[in-house]
Amino acid sequence: MRRRVVLDALWREPSRLLRLACWSVAEALPSLTGGYAVARAVDDGFAAGRPGVGMAWLGVLAAAWAVAAVSARQVLLLIAGIVEPFRDDLLRRVVTGALRAGRGGDSAAVARMNHQVELARDSFGAIITVVRSFVFTLVSVAVGLSTLAPAVVPLVLPPVALGLGLFLVSLPSLARRQREFIVADERTAAAVAAMASGLRDVTACGAEERVAAEVGQAVTRQAASARALARVTATRTLSLAVGAWLPVVLLLAGAPWLVRQGITGGVILGTLTYVMQSLAPALGGLVQGLGVSGVRLAVTLERILHVPGPPVPQGDAEPDTVPDIQPDGVRLVLRGVRFAYGAAGRKAPEPVIDGLDLDVPEGDHLAVVGPSGIGKSTLAALVAGLLTPDEGEVLVGGVPAARVRPAARALIPQEAYVFPGTLAENLTYLAPGATPERVDEAVAAFGLTDLAQRCAGGPLDPAELSAGERQLIALARTYLSPARLVVLDESTCHLDPAAEARAEAAFAARGGTLVVVAHRISSALRARRVLVMDGTRVRLGSHEEMVAASPLYADLVGHWTGRSEELPARAVAEDADVAPGRRPEPAALGGDLNRLDA
Questions:
Q1: Hey, which residues does 339 pair with through a beta bridge?
Q2: Element counts in the chain: helices (H) and strands (E)
Q3: Exposure pattern of 134-164 as b/e (b: 16+ CB <10 Å)?
Q4: Are 461 and 518 in contact (CB under 8 A)?
């Protein structure tokens, strides 16, 4: 699993890897020419009494370094282009896993895993950097030495290979010790946190010695893990001694023999330049990078991927992965749903939703109305599968909402997300196959024409957009998506009444099932049915029925009508214009107002 995640990140854009290889060749020019230029500068220049020739060769080396400096910038940009999508993929896995876990999971685990994602991102970038640098440096030095003096190759490259081999053999043990140390560190942190949060109880119960002993054991285990890790880490020093310094010793000790073979002092100096200026730093970077970042990446990926992630392709699923399911239609059914906010294991508080039954047929348009804090957003989150009920079930097309394929339903919250990119990129984020004509249709339907002309294909700066513009972009993005169940959780609160009516009209004409947490009573007038939540009684029916049956709803309508905004006449007219044929005959209300069937 870990290997597949890393390989997917590397091969996501093969063209980027090709460009990275080309710029790496340019960056490795000093490693290729360094020793040769020094040898020629000494033998053909300064030692031969021709300082101009010597300076010319040093100028060649300086030019190589200039090219390398320019290439280094491009290399960093290309590595960032590989690493950042890798980070985004890991974050998506962590967040998806946390949402699927629901409230029963450890909320602090999300923060811990987010930290692990950052560690994995940094480690992945460091590994790409050091491995790439070592490979291109080694090849460049091998070519340079072969060109300069093949006789010195046996004194340089075999010790490097031996040192590298020693290090690679120690990596599995190093990874195991690193994993043990991280686990011990987390256990120590958990023990100390538990002790700190319960100091008063510990003192009251006279349990100071017992708690101190438990925390002390955790600290002792962590110290033992740290010592074991340090012992294995010492193998890196041996690897560097063999791979980086043994070639220097062999060159110096074999200098008399090399001279008898016709090797000049300039060539020996150039060979030492290859070793000291190129090979030794590259090997040191590799050993340090893999020994620290490589092991850290392996351990953090293991911990991150333990969190349930997004679905994998059919036929390649992990044994413990629960795939998302395509619902059979988008009929929404709630049966006996109860939900209360509170920590697991504690006395349950008063529920926000209790014993709710609801049946929303496919293609329905439902408005949810009630005072602030009554549980409307909680209901929206339950419908979208972001929360799981304490009792009962929430089904979308016969599938538990938490297991519904994400593309089948969408929840648009009050705070809209817009990322730096073009308007088209923002709108097609959930529908990458949308045609330009379809995008233009969404732009027109949601009144984004002026914004499209203003940005003229350039990138958006979210900070420069109004809250209403961000909401319109989020609405149009969902409009283009394949989601057939759309939940608007006060996602039009920053729009004026006309823009809100236009947005709801677009979704009504689009088809599918629409649930609107109403910000204005006019949204209820446009809906086929209205769900009134008042904390004690939950009622369902048409606008007219709710005015007659629900004092709360009638009061909300009266309050709205008393404001300066035009309500009944204009809103009903808008409803007739924007959603023709969607208002059925009033449904009869059953006697049990907690049982809400179509």
A1: 353
A2: 23, 11
A3: bebbbebbbebbeebbebbeebbbebbeebb
A4: no
CA-wise closest residue to 412 among 366, 380, 439: 380
**Residue 545 in contact with residue 589, Cβ under 8 Å?**
yes
pLDDT at 112: 53
The predicted pLDDT at position 342 comes to 62
Residues 6 or more apart in contact with residue 121 via CB below 8 angstroms: 83, 84, 86, 87, 90
Q: Taking CA 272 as the corner, what is the angle to CA 271 and CA 276, rounded to the nearest 5 degrees?
A: 125
Give Cβ neighbours of residue 101 (< 8 Å, ≥ 6 apart).
308
With 0-12 / 13-18 / 19 or more C-beta atoms within 10 angstroms meaning exposed / middle / buried, residue 347 is: exposed
Query: How confident is the model at residue 203, as a pLDDT?
Result: 66
What are 207's two structure tokens?
A: 């349990």
What distance in Å separates the CA atoms of residue 486 and residue 75, rounded to the nearest whole number?
Answer: 43
Torsion angle, alpha carbons of 38, 42, 44, 45, to 10: 100
Which one-letter amino acid corresponds to residue 430? L
Can you tell me the distance from the alpha carbon of 116 to that of 122, in angstroms, rounded to the nearest whole number? Answer: 10
- Residue 371 near residue 534, CB atoms below 8 Å: yes
Which residue ranges of the chain lie beneath pLDDT 50? 102-108, 307-322, 343-347, 564-598
Q: Return the amino acid letter for 230.
A: A
pTM over 0.70: no
Strand partners, 541: 530
Cα–Cα distance measured from residue 253 to residue 265, given in angstroms and rounded to the nearest whole number? 14
